[in-house]
Amino acid sequence: MSTAGPRTPQTSSSLTVSNRYGTPRRSLSRRAKLALAGGALGVAVVGAGFFALGQNGPQIDTKDVGFAVADAGHMTVDFQVTKDPEATVQCAIKALSDNYAVVGWKVATIGPAGETTAGTTAHRVQLRTESLAVSGGVDSCWAADANS
Questions:
Q1: Which spans are transmembrane here (predicted)?
Q2: 73 and 30 both lie in a single domain
């Protein structure tokens, strides 16, 4: 017989839980929690700065106006570009087939607008296509390098 006293229900259940799942881990100290919070805040500030600086490029907006399919090998895309009148941008124009495959692609360079102060200009680009296109438009535009 054992000389130890009877086990209390609380001790018995905590032993069962410890045996089944292991001993509970200690929580982080207050100093460790503050260090983790400070590190997360630092990463957030750096990330926000990165995205804010990435958005400082020139504002370029496009609007698809229309397209015309001449035949299975050619199409024309009409679009407008709104940009700084003195900026040079490049726009990727694409033609799509009925199953949304790209069947034509061309990069158009749009230079400064000259004497006009209006930022929106209209453009027409002719594309060669490898099969019949059913749609066309601007895929994306970006600021052109000064060396381009």
A1: 34-53
A2: no
- pLDDT tens-digit map of 28-69: 888 988 998 888 988 988 888 777 766 566 788 999 999 999
H helices present in 1-148, as ranges: 9-21, 30-54
Which residue type does 12 have? S
Neighbours of 25 (CB within 10 A): 6
Q: Residues 71, 134: one domain?
A: yes
Q: Are strands 74-82 and 61-71 parallel, antiparallel or unpaired?
A: antiparallel
For 66, the token pair is: 């229309």
Residues 6+ apart with CB under 8 A from 81: 60, 61, 62, 89, 91, 110, 120, 121, 123, 141
